[in-house]
# Entry
Amino acid sequence: EEDFSYRVNYRQRDEFTDTFKKLNRAFEKVGFLKEGYKKAEKRISSLLQAVNEAVVMLDVDKQVTSYNEAAVRLFRAGEEEFETWFAQIISGNVELNQLLGRCLKAEKKCRNNPC
# Structure
């Protein structure tokens, strides 16, 4: 349920003690990371809206993760159906689909071997 404040309250001293301590530290770290991710996501969203140029962010499966109002206007889509509308644009445009595929391939290559 994404409650990373949970801690295992294991009071015994045996072979499991260190495991539960590490598990509690992992919960704490994940909580901090999730909090940082949420803050970064809000900052990115604010920046996207401040930009006058159309910006659409996609994940590795070419699914829309974020976009700004300028993109909605450019592609003449309603904000509620933008993600579906953009997916149709990608699937109907061979050149764009191929370009995105090449970009993703280059991204994976850079992650495996820093550019």
Q: What stands out?
A: The chain is about 60% helix and 5% strand. The chain has a mean pLDDT of 84.
